[in-house]
Amino acid sequence: MTDMTPAILILGPSALPLARRLAALLPGAVITGPHARLDVAERIEVVPLEPVADGLRALFLAGRPVIGIAAAGALIRMLAPVLATKATEPPVLAVAEDASVVVPLLGGHHGANDLARRIAGAIDAIAAITTAGDLRFGVALDDPPAGWRLAAACDPKPAMAALVAGAAIRSGTALPDWLSHLPRAPDGAVSVVTSHRRDVPPNGGLLYHPRSLAVGIGSDRGAPAAEISQLIDDTLADAGLAPEAVALIATIDIKADEAGIAAAADALGLPVRIYPATRLAEETPRLETPSDYVRATVGVAGVAEAAALAAAGPDGRLIVAKRRSARATCAVALAPAPIDVDHTGRAPGMLYVVGIGPGRADWRTPEVDRMVAASTDLVGYGLYLDLLGPAAAGKRRHGYELGEEERRVACALDLAAEGRQVALVCSGDAGIYAMAALVYELIERGQDQGGPRPLWSRVRVQVSPGISALQAAAARAGAPLGHDFCAISLSDLMTPWPVIERRVQAAADGDFVVAFYNPVSRRRRHQLARAREILLAARGPATPVILARNLGRPDETVTVIELGSLDVDAVDMLTLVMVGARGTRRLDLGQGVRVYTPRGYGSRGEEVA
């Protein structure tokens, strides 16, 4: 699970009273539904979800719990196309509109059963839980609680079947509280073992690993992820330690942006926690292999051992001293209980720069949805944050106006440098006339100036693409980008007009299809007129032109005209203008006008320059 803030889905205003009760019970929950059918007279946050099925599937794929005040069958049918494996599905619950019953449909082992009980207790309903083990023992034995993992080599089904049939367990060691209520007997048929070691699961029994191991890593700058991963694997294997018992990767804060460490942790499915040198220095008396060289280099006597011990806590102990590979070091410490990852060290800063396309949920990529769901903070132009709808619920919002681009990027970098997970939200594609380039520009500018905010360079940055305006316009109009094309911004705020004019002339000379971004503003009208003149001289007045406004939104319009009749007053700031090449063709069909550019020159008698 990445975001446990539920979305409460209602399909009509009659469900609002119950939705209010659930929203009050679940802090941060957002009410969502098809806004055309919601006549909301009172002030209540209801985020439109259009179309409903696509929006619901997007929430599900992003790992968002969904509470549908709707028929169970309706929810199942809408989600059916995206159902895959129960290992990753979030909770999905159906609640009867009369508040009589709560049914966990999916994600029973990921919190749905517990959430159903909580809701049922609050609204005096019946929690219709059908998971056999959960009903019998109050816990999902194949999906233990936080801090514990079932051994990868353990097949839990025989043991669970035996316990459901009435068998007792036997164990030679003390069991954690969440297992203590299971029926026990000295000769119990089901053996239950807990260990941080790489043991063989008992035949027909259960082996659980407490996540009590902390792996400390030190590395050279640029050490490859494969080397770090191999070092961790070898260290654990040689010591007989279970990978499932590892809670986290720990390191010094100056390695927060080290791509190899981050990638190795991702490959192992482990979080990274970082510590300042001052904190690691406190562990010096407990180090087994202190190093004067490391002390001189980073200010502490050892990184791998000190980081592992810091994560394991004051009662932890070093069980594997520092091991080396060519460019990295590794050590392991054991805590007396599962490590609370959320309360040790801090997470490295992460900045996701995401393109949300035109803003529609079904036009966002699953990767973008996952990044938004994983973020604690959202930064962007206020309208773009609003377009996220229920995906923004429960996040800290940092909204900025147009023209405040540097301020919003600086805010995003500052938040990420504090250790937060931040999504910098852009419309269209984040790398096309958007914020991704400015992120790197500000980081480099800070380095060149000695770093007004030196921690910016330690922030991990990941850019995710979105549907750009030129792609959306082309798809709506037909296939005008079937051959070579270019994009030119007509705004002279960042680029001098003579430079822009030369680029328009070059596009005309090269016979490119041209997508014009920022074609006009309230005070800037002449640039589009001049661009039309240049293109008219190169490709003639009958050249198709696409005017695409508010793409992917309810008031979307797409119009096809001829270059000779292009009127600047018909274009505003929300319009993308796309001008065809000499070979671009207009096709009148029963479904309307379509524009396409053939894939090659000469196939339809066009002039070859």
UniProtKB/TrEMBL annotation:
Keyword Methyltransferase: yes
Record domain CobE/GbiG C-terminal: where: 213-333
Residue ranges occupied by any Cobalamin synthesis G N-terminal domain in the UniProt entry: 56-134
Keyword Ligase included in the entry's annotation: no
UniProt record, GO biological process: methylation
Pathway where this protein functions: Cofactor biosynthesis; adenosylcobalamin biosynthesis
UniProt keyword list: Cobalamin biosynthesis, Methyltransferase, S-adenosyl-L-methionine, Transferase
CDD domains associated with the record: Precorrin_3B_C17_MT
Molecular function as annotated in GO: methyltransferase activity
Start and end residues of each Tetrapyrrole methylase domain: 350-566
Pfam families cross-referenced by the UniProt entry: CbiG_C (PF01890), CbiG_N (PF11760), TP_methylase (PF00590)
Name listed for the protein in its UniProt record: Precorrin-3 methylase CobJ
Organism: Tistrella bauzanensis
